[in-house]
Amino acid sequence: MQIDTLPAGDPVHRDQKCIVVPFAGKRRVLSTCQLNGGYQEGLTAVFNNDVDPGDGTKCRLLAPSYEEHLALTAEMLGLDRHTAAGMSTAASMDNAAIRTERFGSTAVTAVVTAGIEVNGGRVGDPASWDEAAEQEASVKAGTINIMLFISTDMSPGGLARAMVTCTEAKAAALQELLVSSRYSMGIATGSGTDSTIVVCNAESPICLNNAGKHCKLGELIGKAVKAAVKEALYLQTGLSPEKQHHILRRTDRLGITEESLWEDFLKQNQERSIRREDFAEQMYKIGQRDELVAAVSLYVHLLDQLLWGMLSLQEAYGMGQKILEMMMPERKNAGSGEPSKERETEEDAGAAGIREKEQVLTMMIQQLKRRLNGFISIK
Asked: Which of 14, 108, 116, 192 could be a cystine partner for 220, CB 3.0 to 4.6 Å?
């Protein structure tokens, strides 16, 4: 089924759990694809393939190797395996986002599928796969696949710059949504399985060489990719500013989750407690309170800047204490998880002697957890 037509005349089809773009003319392509990747001038089509079987089981490939799977997929789509570039994902093609931006005679279209919440990572996070040692890769589902189409011709170097700008735009979209890395305390910049295809129109009379942030083409790429990535994430998993407006969405990358708060709550309230479902209901409501979301966001960003070396231990800890004071529960429960003045005083006194960043981070995270649990009411 044809779902769109690109400015250069290429049709966009959704077929057999794939999005396929057969070229209407000569194109230059730069991609990260395992099948016919790199810089190519002789391709006739590109595609994005959904490998999720849809029954809750693990994603399935058609062949032992990923490259052969893509080659077989190309043939199933009626394409020549030698002149098609493809990529795969567990995201549904029904949730693809298509955004076009124009300026003068130049148009840019981003076709994106996206899922990030279980596999988001920040560049430089610890990795587990050593390809040189011929280990078998074991990665979680969650991928942002981008097909970027430029209506003008571009030099090979210009195509490479377009891919850089495209990648920056993806990272910016994730930063603006405060997407958590699942492998560190950082904000995700992508996933470990993302793929990108950049296509330009080799038949256009206009040939551009630059796609950086100072030129209009770079602006168009940034706008189209950011918008399409955000829309695709929303369509696939509901990820949006509204969904992120909860304290636990801001703190899960620190290890502060509903489950970890519940475990701490039980330790601090051994004689009196509430049912697990009542705790969850209270935490859900508490976590949406505007003033708490704002305060927790400030606190978490303090920890970010401490990790980045932008604030000293004393600066981060001192301001963190002021933010925690702003978050005092409206009413206190004895034994409710609200930290005692004695305990806080001891921690304040000991902070001056702490010199290890990891110690300060751990202590500040524990203080935030206790503060959040202080809002839980025990009947």
From this structure: 108
